[in-house]
Design goal:
This protein has helices spanning 17-28, 41-55, 70-84, 102-128, 152-168, 171-177, 205-217, 224-237, and strands at 8-12, 33-38, 60-64, 89-92, 134-139, 179-186, 243-246, 253-255. The chain is an alpha/beta fold and 265 residues long. The chain has one domain (8-255): 3-Layer(aba) Sandwich (Rossmann fold), CATH 3.40.50.720. It has an eight-stranded mixed beta sheet with strand order 3-2-1-4-5-6-7-8, with helices on both faces. Helix 4 (102-128) packs parallel to helix 5. The longest helix has 27 residues, at 102-128. The protein is globular, with a radius of gyration of 17 Å. It starts with 7 loop residues before the first strand and ends in a 10-residue tail after the last strand. The model has no long low-confidence stretch (mean pLDDT 90).
Length: 265
Protein backbone atom coordinates (compact mmCIF):
# COMPACT_ATOMS: atom_id res chain seq x y z
CA UNK A 1 0.00 0.00 0.00
CA UNK A 2 1.49 3.30 -1.13
CA UNK A 3 1.22 5.90 1.65
CA UNK A 4 0.20 9.39 0.46
CA UNK A 5 0.73 11.18 3.78
CA UNK A 6 3.76 13.44 3.62
CA UNK A 7 4.27 13.00 -0.11
CA UNK A 8 4.65 15.70 -2.79
CA UNK A 9 2.85 15.48 -6.13
CA UNK A 10 3.20 17.19 -9.49
CA UNK A 11 -0.06 17.27 -11.47
CA UNK A 12 -0.31 18.48 -15.05
CA UNK A 13 -3.52 20.00 -16.34
CA UNK A 14 -4.37 20.87 -12.75
CA UNK A 15 -5.97 24.30 -13.16
CA UNK A 16 -9.44 22.83 -13.69
CA UNK A 17 -11.46 19.65 -14.04
CA UNK A 18 -9.95 16.30 -13.12
CA UNK A 19 -6.48 17.72 -12.42
CA UNK A 20 -7.70 20.32 -9.94
CA UNK A 21 -9.85 17.69 -8.22
CA UNK A 22 -6.87 15.33 -7.94
CA UNK A 23 -4.75 18.08 -6.37
CA UNK A 24 -7.41 18.73 -3.77
CA UNK A 25 -7.99 15.02 -3.10
CA UNK A 26 -4.28 14.37 -2.57
CA UNK A 27 -3.98 17.20 -0.07
CA UNK A 28 -7.11 15.95 1.67
CA UNK A 29 -5.44 12.53 1.90
CA UNK A 30 -2.42 14.03 3.66
CA UNK A 31 -0.03 15.01 0.90
CA UNK A 32 2.61 17.52 1.98
CA UNK A 33 2.29 19.62 -1.16
CA UNK A 34 1.23 19.73 -4.79
CA UNK A 35 2.40 21.65 -7.83
CA UNK A 36 -0.41 22.81 -10.10
CA UNK A 37 1.11 22.58 -13.59
CA UNK A 38 -0.96 24.09 -16.38
CA UNK A 39 -0.82 26.44 -19.35
CA UNK A 40 -3.85 28.42 -18.11
CA UNK A 41 -2.28 31.07 -15.90
CA UNK A 42 -5.49 32.69 -14.64
CA UNK A 43 -7.13 29.47 -13.50
CA UNK A 44 -3.82 28.09 -12.26
CA UNK A 45 -3.24 30.93 -9.80
CA UNK A 46 -6.88 30.75 -8.75
CA UNK A 47 -6.79 27.01 -8.02
CA UNK A 48 -3.49 27.17 -6.15
CA UNK A 49 -4.81 30.06 -4.03
CA UNK A 50 -7.95 28.09 -3.20
CA UNK A 51 -5.90 25.03 -2.22
CA UNK A 52 -3.64 27.09 0.02
CA UNK A 53 -6.64 28.72 1.66
CA UNK A 54 -8.27 25.35 2.29
CA UNK A 55 -5.25 23.28 3.31
CA UNK A 56 -2.71 25.85 4.52
CA UNK A 57 -0.24 28.28 3.03
CA UNK A 58 2.56 26.75 1.03
CA UNK A 59 0.76 23.49 0.29
CA UNK A 60 0.23 24.32 -3.40
CA UNK A 61 2.31 26.12 -5.99
CA UNK A 62 1.30 27.06 -9.53
CA UNK A 63 3.77 26.59 -12.40
CA UNK A 64 2.72 27.83 -15.84
CA UNK A 65 3.70 25.12 -18.32
CA UNK A 66 2.96 23.96 -21.84
CA UNK A 67 3.34 20.19 -21.50
CA UNK A 68 4.02 19.86 -25.23
CA UNK A 69 7.23 21.84 -24.65
CA UNK A 70 9.83 19.50 -23.18
CA UNK A 71 11.98 22.27 -21.70
CA UNK A 72 9.01 23.92 -19.97
CA UNK A 73 7.88 20.61 -18.51
CA UNK A 74 11.36 19.80 -17.24
CA UNK A 75 11.49 23.26 -15.66
CA UNK A 76 8.21 22.50 -13.89
CA UNK A 77 9.78 19.39 -12.34
CA UNK A 78 12.83 21.38 -11.27
CA UNK A 79 10.74 24.16 -9.73
CA UNK A 80 8.66 21.61 -7.85
CA UNK A 81 11.67 20.02 -6.15
CA UNK A 82 13.16 23.46 -5.50
CA UNK A 83 10.01 24.41 -3.57
CA UNK A 84 9.29 21.15 -1.74
CA UNK A 85 12.71 19.42 -1.73
CA UNK A 86 11.07 16.15 -2.75
CA UNK A 87 8.82 14.59 -5.38
CA UNK A 88 6.99 11.31 -4.92
CA UNK A 89 3.93 11.29 -7.18
CA UNK A 90 3.49 12.51 -10.76
CA UNK A 91 0.04 12.65 -12.35
CA UNK A 92 0.18 13.20 -16.10
CA UNK A 93 -3.31 14.54 -16.69
CA UNK A 94 -3.07 17.48 -19.14
CA UNK A 95 -5.22 16.95 -22.23
CA UNK A 96 -6.43 18.83 -25.29
CA UNK A 97 -9.20 18.37 -27.80
CA UNK A 98 -9.14 19.13 -31.51
CA UNK A 99 -9.08 16.37 -34.09
CA UNK A 100 -8.33 18.66 -37.02
CA UNK A 101 -5.13 19.93 -35.44
CA UNK A 102 -3.88 16.41 -34.83
CA UNK A 103 -0.30 17.55 -34.39
CA UNK A 104 -1.28 19.56 -31.29
CA UNK A 105 -3.61 16.78 -30.16
CA UNK A 106 -0.77 14.24 -30.22
CA UNK A 107 1.71 16.76 -28.76
CA UNK A 108 -0.41 17.25 -25.63
CA UNK A 109 -2.31 13.98 -25.23
CA UNK A 110 0.56 11.62 -26.00
CA UNK A 111 3.94 13.36 -26.29
CA UNK A 112 3.29 15.44 -23.16
CA UNK A 113 2.49 12.33 -21.15
CA UNK A 114 5.48 10.43 -22.57
CA UNK A 115 7.75 13.34 -21.63
CA UNK A 116 6.27 13.64 -18.14
CA UNK A 117 6.55 9.90 -17.57
CA UNK A 118 10.18 9.62 -18.65
CA UNK A 119 11.26 12.75 -16.76
CA UNK A 120 9.61 11.39 -13.64
CA UNK A 121 10.77 7.81 -14.06
CA UNK A 122 14.38 8.24 -15.11
CA UNK A 123 15.37 11.57 -13.59
CA UNK A 124 13.30 13.09 -10.80
CA UNK A 125 11.56 10.38 -8.78
CA UNK A 126 14.70 8.23 -8.33
CA UNK A 127 16.51 11.24 -6.88
CA UNK A 128 13.78 13.03 -4.97
CA UNK A 129 11.24 10.46 -3.72
CA UNK A 130 11.09 10.55 0.06
CA UNK A 131 10.48 6.83 0.59
CA UNK A 132 11.35 3.60 -1.19
CA UNK A 133 8.43 3.74 -3.62
CA UNK A 134 7.29 6.40 -6.09
CA UNK A 135 4.19 6.57 -8.27
CA UNK A 136 3.27 7.83 -11.72
CA UNK A 137 -0.39 8.00 -12.72
CA UNK A 138 -1.16 8.52 -16.39
CA UNK A 139 -4.69 9.65 -17.15
CA UNK A 140 -5.80 7.79 -20.26
CA UNK A 141 -9.42 7.38 -21.37
CA UNK A 142 -12.10 4.84 -22.15
CA UNK A 143 -11.28 5.87 -25.73
CA UNK A 144 -8.03 3.96 -25.29
CA UNK A 145 -9.90 0.73 -24.58
CA UNK A 146 -12.96 0.83 -26.81
CA UNK A 147 -13.89 2.08 -30.26
CA UNK A 148 -14.50 5.85 -30.32
CA UNK A 149 -15.21 6.54 -34.02
CA UNK A 150 -15.85 10.25 -33.46
CA UNK A 151 -12.34 10.94 -32.11
CA UNK A 152 -9.79 8.68 -33.83
CA UNK A 153 -6.81 10.96 -33.16
CA UNK A 154 -7.60 11.37 -29.45
CA UNK A 155 -8.16 7.61 -29.20
CA UNK A 156 -4.82 6.88 -30.84
CA UNK A 157 -3.04 9.23 -28.43
CA UNK A 158 -4.66 7.65 -25.39
CA UNK A 159 -3.86 4.16 -26.65
CA UNK A 160 -0.23 5.30 -26.69
CA UNK A 161 -0.59 6.34 -23.05
CA UNK A 162 -1.64 2.79 -22.20
CA UNK A 163 1.38 1.49 -24.13
CA UNK A 164 4.01 3.49 -22.26
CA UNK A 165 2.29 2.81 -18.94
CA UNK A 166 2.25 -0.95 -19.36
CA UNK A 167 5.78 -1.09 -20.78
CA UNK A 168 7.49 1.10 -18.15
CA UNK A 169 5.28 -0.47 -15.51
CA UNK A 170 6.66 -3.94 -16.25
CA UNK A 171 8.15 -5.88 -13.36
CA UNK A 172 11.67 -5.68 -14.85
CA UNK A 173 11.58 -1.90 -14.44
CA UNK A 174 9.74 -1.84 -11.10
CA UNK A 175 12.23 -4.22 -9.55
CA UNK A 176 15.12 -1.84 -10.26
CA UNK A 177 13.35 1.46 -9.49
CA UNK A 178 10.46 0.78 -7.08
CA UNK A 179 8.47 3.32 -9.12
CA UNK A 180 5.06 2.10 -10.18
CA UNK A 181 3.41 3.37 -13.35
CA UNK A 182 -0.37 3.07 -13.58
CA UNK A 183 -3.03 4.21 -16.06
CA UNK A 184 -6.50 5.41 -15.09
CA UNK A 185 -9.23 5.57 -17.73
CA UNK A 186 -12.13 7.88 -16.77
CA UNK A 187 -15.56 7.47 -18.27
CA UNK A 188 -17.53 10.47 -19.55
CA UNK A 189 -16.57 13.23 -17.14
CA UNK A 190 -17.68 16.87 -16.77
CA UNK A 191 -14.51 18.52 -18.07
CA UNK A 192 -13.79 21.33 -20.49
CA UNK A 193 -12.82 18.79 -23.13
CA UNK A 194 -16.23 17.12 -23.04
CA UNK A 195 -18.40 20.15 -22.47
CA UNK A 196 -19.42 22.24 -25.48
CA UNK A 197 -17.65 20.02 -27.97
CA UNK A 198 -18.42 21.34 -31.44
CA UNK A 199 -18.18 20.16 -35.03
CA UNK A 200 -15.04 22.21 -35.58
CA UNK A 201 -13.34 20.18 -32.85
CA UNK A 202 -13.77 17.03 -34.93
CA UNK A 203 -12.71 15.96 -38.41
CA UNK A 204 -16.04 16.85 -40.00
CA UNK A 205 -19.83 16.85 -39.75
CA UNK A 206 -20.06 13.06 -40.01
CA UNK A 207 -17.80 12.69 -36.98
CA UNK A 208 -19.87 15.22 -35.06
CA UNK A 209 -23.08 13.29 -35.79
CA UNK A 210 -21.45 10.16 -34.40
CA UNK A 211 -20.34 12.10 -31.30
CA UNK A 212 -23.87 13.38 -30.69
CA UNK A 213 -25.29 9.87 -31.00
CA UNK A 214 -22.65 8.51 -28.62
CA UNK A 215 -23.44 11.20 -26.05
CA UNK A 216 -27.13 10.28 -26.20
CA UNK A 217 -26.32 6.66 -25.42
CA UNK A 218 -23.69 7.39 -22.79
CA UNK A 219 -24.56 7.87 -19.11
CA UNK A 220 -24.61 11.41 -17.75
CA UNK A 221 -21.07 12.65 -17.23
CA UNK A 222 -19.71 11.95 -13.78
CA UNK A 223 -18.26 14.71 -11.61
CA UNK A 224 -14.52 15.26 -11.56
CA UNK A 225 -14.44 14.36 -7.86
CA UNK A 226 -15.44 10.78 -8.72
CA UNK A 227 -12.34 10.42 -10.87
CA UNK A 228 -10.05 12.14 -8.36
CA UNK A 229 -11.13 9.80 -5.58
CA UNK A 230 -10.53 6.83 -7.85
CA UNK A 231 -7.04 8.13 -8.70
CA UNK A 232 -6.10 8.49 -5.03
CA UNK A 233 -7.38 4.99 -4.33
CA UNK A 234 -5.45 3.52 -7.25
CA UNK A 235 -2.24 5.27 -6.16
CA UNK A 236 -2.53 3.31 -2.94
CA UNK A 237 -3.53 -0.13 -4.18
CA UNK A 238 -2.60 -0.34 -7.86
CA UNK A 239 0.23 -2.53 -9.08
CA UNK A 240 2.80 -1.19 -11.50
CA UNK A 241 1.71 -1.59 -15.12
CA UNK A 242 -1.96 -1.94 -14.27
CA UNK A 243 -4.83 -0.19 -16.06
CA UNK A 244 -7.93 0.94 -14.20
CA UNK A 245 -11.37 2.22 -15.16
CA UNK A 246 -12.97 4.99 -13.12
CA UNK A 247 -16.58 5.30 -14.23
CA UNK A 248 -19.91 6.52 -12.84
CA UNK A 249 -19.01 6.75 -9.15
CA UNK A 250 -18.11 3.06 -9.02
CA UNK A 251 -15.03 1.93 -7.19
CA UNK A 252 -12.16 1.83 -9.69
CA UNK A 253 -11.60 -1.59 -11.18
CA UNK A 254 -8.64 -3.07 -13.02
CA UNK A 255 -8.92 -4.23 -16.62
CA UNK A 256 -6.69 -6.59 -18.56
CA UNK A 257 -5.85 -4.84 -21.81
CA UNK A 258 -3.92 -7.61 -23.59
CA UNK A 259 -2.94 -11.14 -22.78
CA UNK A 260 0.67 -11.60 -21.80
CA UNK A 261 2.80 -13.25 -24.47
CA UNK A 262 4.84 -16.26 -23.51
CA UNK A 263 8.37 -15.27 -22.68
CA UNK A 264 11.37 -16.50 -20.76
CA UNK A 265 12.01 -12.97 -19.43
Amino acid sequence: MFEITGKVALITGASSGIGAAIASELLQAGAKGVSVVDINEGLGWEVSAELNKKFGNGRAVFIKTDVSNRRQLEDAFTKTVNVFNQLDIVVNNAAARGERNWEKNIAVNLTGIVTGTILAYEHFLPKYKSSEEGAIINIASMAALYSYPSTPVYSAAKMGVIGITRSLGAKQHYQRTKIKVIAVCPGYTSTNILQDIAAEDLLGDDYYKIQVDMMKLAPIAQPTTAVSRAVVEVIGIGASGSVWIADQNQSPYEVKVLCKRKSKL
